[in-house]
């Protein structure tokens, strides 16, 4: 449209002001998308696998432990098909930034329950046989260039060894993949762990994975397990895997909620700042708008010109913000993937951001547009 | 001779709080086609107010005003806007150009409301700039032009849609003598060569000398219509 040129030119009236306003919008939308990506990661890390699995964890906090002795009792519950343990090991591989989960597990039980994980039979056998053996998800092998036979040193933080040292060394005996893509996970023998670990860690596990013989009875089985330990020293909380992951995210802080609070605050600030800038910009231009009206531009056209400016600015800022967020994700995404599972900007988040940008532009522009519309030529020219 | 402008018993009041100010008190005025009329009078006598009524920028409190055959009282503000864009060109004391646009694009502004193509708009703007002698400054922004040059651009803008009537409110009020003379010469040329009817408010008797007729206004009434 031929009036677009007019809107466009006006943005260059005060270049610094336009650039600063644009920047604040860009930053807002970049933040929006990154927080959206984080919050997506937390909610989508929860996958559909394991509908036939329950997770039994310490009732009050996931950082507590449970005694390995619970295993037989859980197995005795009607509807339980298999049980295996995991423990959160923490620790560092070379650099604190190399974050990936490491669990001590019982090899055959673990891979029997986690059927979506694929490992070559001879490698699984080697894992079961080798006391200090470990297997790694393809994602890790690829990332660190490991080979079968390599020794992987892990510096413990939570679990020092009995002899007081903190260096755990595992021999890589195999790799595994998952139906869901490469998994950044390192597994080693629980037997070795419980034997070598400092006294307080012995015979302790982090959580149980329980396979159900009949997934439709998940609720009653979960209740039965929890009832077993209700009055013991180690009460449990059993939930489907899905729910467990969600609780995990909740315990880390409701990321989505925090994100939306931050976003609202940032948005509100930007809205005020931009609206203020626009109003100020309009005041300077009252005589010009009056001139346009004098020349025969209707009230509607003039108000649309003003509205167009703020919409253009916000949408341009939104687009740039989207672009920057995508670049950021490409840059840091791979590093964060091991923590968050997936870290990317979804098309729906982009759409949301752009709609929001449009809305922001309309809201911010509405008051100046209305002022412009109401402006009477004679008064405006006189005020000049 | 036909009358381009006919004012009958025009009045205009402004109410400020309880106070009512009578700015125009029964103006009767006929302006012939091709006239160049200067309007003089003390500050606050109502010159700008009358000019705004004739240019269709404001409505009178009472009375009738017919410009180029159109009864302005009967037009809605939207119709009035359209009418202005086709029939009147405005020139102000402070030029009132859009600082972000080049001279060329300032001149093109009124044409954005027409059906002309981009090329035609450019062509017409160039012609208008040639008439005011500023073809070589087409790409300059107002900030890069002198006051006289800016006023020429403003005149080109007033001309570009080829209106019958030019309405000028103290067009030389902000210019030095020589520059003012140039602008007045240009207005005279537009009047004689291009047949534009011009109404110009001025405080400067020398400026009024360029006009064919001079009107004097005081306290909202026209005093005389001297030759
Ligand atoms: N919107 C308005 N509200 C109230 N009073 C107004 C308004 N517009 C004009 N006036 C008053 O009307 C009177 C005439 O104003 P006008 O601008 O027509 O005078 P003028 O002859 O053009 O004066 P000047 O030579 O100073 O430009 C002034 O007293 C002015 O204060
Ligand atoms: Mg005046």
Task: Describe the protein's architecture and organization.
The complex is a heterodimer of chains A (384) and B (227). Chain A is of the alpha+beta class and 384 residues long. Chain A has two domains: 2-44 and 254-383, no CATH class; 53-252, no CATH class. In chain A, 56% of the residues lie in helices and 16% in strands. Chain A has helices at residues 4-11, 15-44, 70-75, 107-113, 121-129, 138-144, 190-196, 218-229, 241-251, 255-294, 299-340, 347-374, 377-383; strands at residues 53-58, 66-67, 80-86, 102-105, 117-119, 133-137, 151-155, 167-178, 186-189, 204-205, 207-212, 236-240. In chain A, strands 4, 5, 6, 7, 8 and 9 form a six-stranded mixed β-sheet that branches. A four-stranded antiparallel β-sheet of chain A has the order 3-11-1-12, with helices on both faces. Residues 45-50 of chain A have low confidence and may be disordered. With 227 residues, chain B is α/β, with parallel strands linked by helices. Chain B has a single domain (3-224), classed as Rossmann fold (3-Layer(aba) Sandwich). Chain B contains seven helices and ten strands. In chain B, the strands form two sheets. In chain B, strands 6-7-8-3-9-10 form a six-stranded mixed β-sheet. In chain B, strands 2-1-4-5 form a four-stranded antiparallel β-sheet, with helices on one face. The longest helix of chain B has 16 residues, at 177-192. At the A-B interface, α1, α10 and α13 of A face α2 of B. The complex binds adenosine-5'-triphosphate and magnesium ion (MG).
How does the SSE layout of this entry go?
The complex is a heterodimer of chains A (384) and B (227).
Chain A (H helix, E strand, L loop, with lengths): L3 H8 L3 H30 L8 E6 L7 E2 L2 H6 L4 E7 L15 E4 L1 H7 L3 E3 L1 H9 L3 E5 H7 L6 E5 L11 E12 L7 E4 H7 L7 E2 L1 E6 L5 H12 L6 E5 H11 L3 H40 L4 H42 L6 H28 L2 H7 L1
Parallel strand pairs in A: 4-9, 6-8
Antiparallel strand pairs in A: 1-11, 1-12, 2-10, 3-11, 5-8, 6-9, 7-8
Chain B lengths: L2 E14 L2 E14 L3 E5 L6 H8 L7 E6 L2 E2 L5 H11 E4 L11 H6 L9 H14 L15 H13 L5 E5 L7 H16 L4 E5 L3 H4 L4 E6 L2 E6 L1
Parallel strand pairs in B: 3-8, 3-9, 6-7, 7-8
Antiparallel strand pairs in B: 1-2, 1-4, 4-5, 9-10
Helix pairs in contact in B: 4-5, 5-6
The site of adenosine-5'-triphosphate has 12 residues of chain B, from strand 1, strand 2 and helix 1.
């Amino acid at each position: 449209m031929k009036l677009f040129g007019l809107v466009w030119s006006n943005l260059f009236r005060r270049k610094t002001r336009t650039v600063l306003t644009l920047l604040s919008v860009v930053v807002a939308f970049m933040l929006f998308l990154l927080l959206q990506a984080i919050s997506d990661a937390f909610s989508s890390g929860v996958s559909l696998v394991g509908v036939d699995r329950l997770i039994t964890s310490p009732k009050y906090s996931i950082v507590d432990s449970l005694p390995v002795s619970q295993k037989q009792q859980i197995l005795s519950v009607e509807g339980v098909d298999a049980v295996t343990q995991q423990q959160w090991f923490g620790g560092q591989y070379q650099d604190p930034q190399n974050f990936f989960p490491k669990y001590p597990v019982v090899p055959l039980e673990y891979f029997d329950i986690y059927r979506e994980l694929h490992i070559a039979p001879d490698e699984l056998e080697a894992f079961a046989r080798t006391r200090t053996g470990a297997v790694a998800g393809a994602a890790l092998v690829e990332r660190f260039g490991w080979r079968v036979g390599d020794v992987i040193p892990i510096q413990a933080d939570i679990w020092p060894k009995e002899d007081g040292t903190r260096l755990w060394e595992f021999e890589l005996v195999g790799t595994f993949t998952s139906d869901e893509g490469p998994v950044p996970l390192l597994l080693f023998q629980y037997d070795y762990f419980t034997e070598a670990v400092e006294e307080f860690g012995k015979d302790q596990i982090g959580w149980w994975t329980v396979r159900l013989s009949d997934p439709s009875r998940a609720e009653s089985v979960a209740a039965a397990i929890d009832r077993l330990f209700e009055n013991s020293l180690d009460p449990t909380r059993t939930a489907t895997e899905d729910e467990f992951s969600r609780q995990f995210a909740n315990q880390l802080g409701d990321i989505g909620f925090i994100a939306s609070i931050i976003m609202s605050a940032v948005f509100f600030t930007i809205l005020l700042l931009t609206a203020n800038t626009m109003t100020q910009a309009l005041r300077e231009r009252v005589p010009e708008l009056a001139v346009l009206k004098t020349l025969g531009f209707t009230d509607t056209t003039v108000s649309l010109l003003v509205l167009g400016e703020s919409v253009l600015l916000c949408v341009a800022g939104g687009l740039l913000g989207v672009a920057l967020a995508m670049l950021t994700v490409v840059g840091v995404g791979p590093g964060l993937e091991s923590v968050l599972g997936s870290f990317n900007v979804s098309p729906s988040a982009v759409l949301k951001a752009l709609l929001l940008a449009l809305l922001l532009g309309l809201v911010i522009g509405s008051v100046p547009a209305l002022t412009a519309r109401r402006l009477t030529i004679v008064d405006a020219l006189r005020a000049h | 001779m036909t009358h381009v402008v006919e004012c009958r018993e025009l009045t205009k009041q402004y109410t400020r709080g309880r106070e009512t100010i009578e700015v125009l008190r029964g103006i009767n005025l006929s302006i012939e086609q091709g006239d160049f009329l200067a309007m003089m009078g003390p500050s606050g006598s109502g010159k700008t107010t009358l000019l705004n009524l004739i240019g269709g920028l404001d409505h009178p409190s009472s009375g009738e005003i017919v410009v180029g055959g159109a009864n302005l009282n009967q037009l809605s503000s939207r119709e009035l806007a359209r009418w202005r864009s086709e029939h009147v060109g405005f020139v102000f004391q402070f030029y009132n150009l859009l600082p972000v646009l080049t001279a060329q694009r300032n001149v093109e502004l009124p044409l954005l409301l027409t059906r002309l193509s981009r090329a035609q708009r450019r062509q017409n703007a160039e012609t208008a700039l040639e008439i005011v002698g500023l073809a070589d400054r087409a790409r300059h922004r107002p900030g890069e032009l002198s006051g006289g040059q800016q006023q020429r651009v403003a005149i080109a803008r007033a001309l570009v849609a080829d209106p019958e009537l030019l309405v000028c409110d103290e067009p030389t009020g902000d210019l030095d003598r020589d520059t003012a003379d140039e602008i007045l010469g240009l207005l005279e040329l537009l009047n004689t060569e291009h047949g534009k009817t011009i109404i110009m408010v001025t405080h400067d008797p020398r400026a009024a000398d360029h006009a064919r007729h001079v009107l004097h206004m005081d306290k909202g009434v026209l005093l005389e219509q001297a030759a």
